[in-house]
Amino acid sequence: MNDQAPMIELRHVHKWYGTYHALKDVSLTVNRGERVVVCGPSGSGKSTMIRCINRLEPHEEGQIVVDGIELTDDARQIAAIRAEVGMVFQQFNLFPHLTVLENLVLAPVWVRRMKRAEAEELAMHFLERVRIPEQAQKYPGELSGGQQQRVAIARALTMRPQVMLFDEPTSALDPEMIKEVLDVMVELAKDGMTMICVTHEMGFARTVADAMVFMDAGEIVERAPPEKFFAAPESERARQFLSRILSH
Amino acid sequence: MGEALRWTRVNLFGSVPSALVTLIAAYLVVRGLWGFAGWALVHAVWHASNGRACIAASGGDGACWAFLGVWGRFILFGRYPYEQDWRPLLVIVVFVALLLASCDRRLWGRWLALLWLAGIAANLVLMLGGVFGLAFVPTDFWSGLPLTLILAIVGLAAAFPLAILLALGRRSELPAVRALSVAYIELIRGVPLITVLFMASVMLPLFLPEGTTIDKLLRAQAGFILFYAAYLAEVVRGGLQAMPAGQYEAADALGLGYWRKMRLIILPQALQISIPALVNIFIAGFKDTTLVTIIGLFDLISTASNAITDPSWRGFYIEAYSFIGAIYFGFCFFMSRYSGALEASLRRGRR
User: Fold this and answer.
1) What ipTM was estimated for this complex?
2) Mean pLDDT for chain A?
3) Assign residue B108 a region: left if phi > 0, alpha if psi is -120 to 50, beta otherwise?
4) Predicted structure pTM score
5) Which one is the CATH code of A8-97+163-246: 3.40.50.300, 3.90.1150.10, 2.120.10.30, 3.40.50.720?
């Protein structure tokens, strides 16, 4: 693949839930190694947008191209894209009937056809990176929320994805656990991972983001470098949003 | 001991009405047990040459277990050739051994399933014979407990995978698959089992080209499988619906295809949720095998009913039905305890 080509490109994407227009003419380009933080009021379409990128939600109009592959109804292309795109959910979504290690080994073995021993080695490597190798044999239900979310990040990483999508990864966590998850994400960003994060953690955004994207009512209202976005947002809607979340 | 005493005082004699209820209940239980023990053990007659002698010996107050000494074998194995008895006996032993082996979760996995398949196949060969020097015994002669076990175990074992496919089909995004699954489930559920069995035994041969016959037992077995697949499918579907959407999404996001997602992530959890309801249907299914009596198969109920018509041992209903009742109770109680233990062990270590 051409290294100059964008990693992810959304062109004039529309999505409806019934008559509700959830995404309105959304266009977004994310280059390789770029870290984009998406923010906006709830119901603004942030999650919907990133869930369209790995086809957890189908879009109705426009084009989505990931790593040169366009998302269509073709199941093989969807599978190819999903293997390259890691996703971390607000509710972790670990598999509760499997141990932590089995959660991590599953996709490399079944999707990448990796040998089990090799997959376990890879899994342990990533568990060490998220700093919980000692929990490998436990079940997700025995871990704290922060630990579960770090396992979820490690699980996505074992597929060695080109892009990581984060859908409000810290919103379901108790305050004291947010930092341990953000630390892992900052490290990931430093290693050059292409990332799109939907989050309200503005400190994190300031630290890692190459670009801030502000969404409201299904539209991308503004895209700006973080210094500019936080200091002087162009749109009135972004200004209102920032004043609301930064003033508490 | 002190703990037990305290528990008794708090729970059984907490107040005057409660103490009164406890005493009345205790009286009834003791009296009932006393009466039963008197009948089944104290006044029971274990050896007698015929029914009249047996009744005389017990004075009419005791069970006449001598009846089972004479007719027990027939109730268990029915019309199966007498000198070949060891074959159905071995079949029962193999089934019980397989059931017990399934209790050990360490044995779980692909090869327990293979063991079951091998055990069922071996049992059918044992019953049918015609190979390995075993005398051929047509299915008309299969009867009693082995027949009941084959109908129930083969039936439910075959219905279960079919039920999973139907449940997945009913939730499928493909309209044709969904419509077919819904139509099948609704049709079968709307018809009593007895009708399905009659269809299989009486109607089906009318539709077959002349000269072709399908074994009666096979037809009944197929009817049983098709009927229970529909019921089990609805239970499995309930389990599937209880799964949070996040589990589907996480599996999708990892790039697992549909079948792997279902087999590795969704079904293990959905089936676990469904265990109580599944066992409910298994128990009902086991007991419903008795309906095959009506289409002339010689199951445990038929052999017992037949045994009590012997002129020299006429009318020992209670003994005969207590005997098969105990057998049915044994298997059903086992299933119910097993499911309880299974749920507890699956819950361990999880949320």
Assistant:
1) 0.91
2) 91
3) beta
4) 0.84
5) 3.40.50.300
